[in-house]
């Protein structure tokens, strides 16, 4: 679980609450106060996601993208600050057991037309990779992507 506290910033245009990234795991449940600040990348643009009172927001994580062999994409998102109000959010990522080897589902990669887009990796190793890296878009997912030669 990650609790985030974003105080008002006198010059929000010069600061970033949380840089663009995707989440590890299968799904992330997010609860937040009514102050906006979450943005998702859609068609090359940052889109504001307005909070819905008394609700959870669900993001698809990197491991759904891996399991689906890229059919379902993890959500690239970021948090921006404002100069008026405190923003609070609590993110609860959900993933497999740490020693689970995650790879594309075998039914999705059973012939040459559909090769595995991602290499198999223990969930623990992916977490260590992500924790040892700066948040930078989907850079960790790119590391485990199989390169076409």
UniProtKB/TrEMBL annotation:
Question: Which terms does the record give in the GO molecular function aspect?
Answer: metal ion binding
What's in the keyword line of the UniProt record? Iron, Metal-binding
Q: Where is the Fe2OG dioxygenase domain?
A: 1-96
InterPro entries according to UniProt? IPNS-like_FE2OG_OXY, IPNS-like_sf, Oxoglu/Fe-dep_dioxygenase_dom, Plant_2OG-oxidoreductases
> What Pfam families does this protein map onto?
2OG-FeII_Oxy
* PANTHER family reported for this sequence: OXOGLUTARATE/IRON-DEPENDENT DIOXYGENASE
Protein name per Swiss-Prot or TrEMBL:
Flavonol synthase/flavanone 3-hydroxylase
Species this protein is from: Hibiscus syriacus (Rose of Sharon)
